[in-house]
Amino acid sequence: MAAAQVWSVDPRTGKPREEVAAEATAEEIDRVVRTAHAVRDALADRAVRAAFLRTAAALLEETASHVVEAADAETALGPGRLNGELARTAFQLRSFADIVDEGAFLDIVINHADDSRTPPWPDLRRIKVPLGVVAVYAASNFPLAFSVPGGDTASALAAGCPVVVKAHPDHPATAELCASVLRRAAAQSGLPQDVVQLVHGFEAGVELIRHPLVSAAGFTGSVRGGRALFDAAAARPHPIPFHGELGSLNPVVVTAAAAAERGEELGAGLAASMTLGVGQFCTKPGLVLVPAGADGDVLVKELTHGVSEVEAGVLLDHRMREAFVAGVAERAALDGVEAPVTPGAGGEHTVGAGFLAVDAARLAREGAHDLLLEECFGPVTVVARYSDDAEITAVLSRLPGNLTATLHLSRAESAGEGHGAALLAALTPLAGRVLVGGWPTGVAVAPAQQHGGPYPATTSTSTSVGGTAIERWLRPVAYQTTPEALLPPELRDANPLGLPRVVDGRREAGVRAEGN
Fold first, then answer.
1. Fewest CB within a 10 Å sphere: which of 50, 155, 264, 490?
2. What is the mean pLDDT of the chain?
3. Which pLDDT does position 510 carry in this prediction?
4. In sequence order, which ranges of 39-146 are alpha helices (DSSP H)?
5. Helix, strand, or coil here: 449?
């Protein structure tokens, strides 16, 4: 039986564009993974890895016009958004190259033998080593930054792990183009091209997570798909880490004082954030607690105006469009739910932005309105009007884990007056990134970033954005009473590679030995 063909589809029309590839069979997955596993030692040299990542960034920028054209044709995200995403992706690659060069990610700790301890300490030297082949499942909504050349791939390669990417069916041509860029960068850096491989197909994704030589996986997608892969990773004879980003409501709390102080500004900001990228950001604010009364009405009025001005947009594919239209209709039909701006179908291939409003008291207890506490992918949010802090607390207590949680305070509350600290404490257990002011859409690629939160936001406590994302693909190994001549160079007393280390409790920056 011939393998099914993979087609690139134009979401603006729903029509196929071109045949891109064939779905990988189980035999092909086995071959690809074994090939990646066979070349893993080629990534051992940190200097070569860093050069590879920088070359990949440069080649991605050189081919930017072709990459953006392909991605726009498959996602309808627009050249402006995609050029920005490409710049972010290149920055990520270079950032991980810098991390590889600096070497602190190896987390080297050396304790020399100490007989004065009780009990005595043997000589112990710990370092982190790469796990092995990493499976990366590309995201639908970020065809570059969270897909083939994205953060999961970049961080895994930086750690020294070969990568097999399962392309997302919404942008297979973009995936092929980006994979060719990475493979060309590998070759130009003196590495085997097979340190990066690409496969297509739903069953290919299932086979990939089950393969015994796959050592870890990174995923960005739906709760349903991510949970199925997470369970498959755990059910293997030898379970593996599965770092999945699944779904997030991203609650926002606006205090009564904040609404009184700048209700119009907050309404306009919310309209811009929830409709950004046609509401397809994983950090879109999906539930906003707004005070009942006149001050909250000002915010809602400005939100109504802002959302009403947003033109109908194209979602990433028609399946998502159908799910959005059905999802908002089901939510709007609930008792007590109003639609000041009705979200739903905007045309044959588009959707219109909108928002729903409900009394917070309905969300504070279990029932049919629990549907409003689930993510609805697309340009819609739920505004829950509360009467007092008790209702805020009651709603927050019923929320699942999130990527973000946002708190808007007045100037006086930000200075420490009132209940700001208590509300911040209530939001902190719910999310990996807690904002005071601003809006959660947009995730800075910074060393202190945390893009991950309690389940179902993510399946682990790690971050997929920022430098510490590299830690997902490493494991610690301690060498005990190992002769100096047999130790990895990174662990030798002379520190010939000039790495930052902690030696007998003292931090040393390390100075590169002469001639190294």
1. 264
2. 96
3. 64
4. 46-62, 64-75, 79-102
5. coil
What's the pLDDT at 5? 95
pLDDT at 3: 79
* Residue 282 annotated to the active site: yes
Dihedral-angle region of residue 254 (phi above 0 means left; psi in -120 to 50 means alpha; beta otherwise): beta
Q: Which of 74, 85, 176, 245 is catalytic?
A: 245
- Give the burial string for 54-88 (b: 16+ CB within 10 Å, else e): bbbbbbbeebeeebbebbbbbbbbbeebbbebbbb
The helix-helix angle for 46-62 and 151-159 (nearest 10°) equals 150
Say which residue the tokens 């953060």 belong to. Answer: 151
Residue 512 — pLDDT band, cuts 50, 70, 90? Answer: very low
Catalytic residue among 85, 282, 375, 413: 282
Rounded to whole angstroms, how far apart are CA atoms 318 and 314?
9
Confidence of residue 126 (pLDDT cuts 50, 70, 90): very high
What is the radius of gyration, based on Cα positions, of the chain?
25
Asked if 161 is an active-site residue, the reply is no
8 A C-beta contact, residue 351 and residue 328: no
Nearest C-alpha neighbor of 401 from the set 468, 450, 358: 450
What angle (nearest 5°) sits at the alpha carbon of residue 127, between those of residues 126 and 128?
135
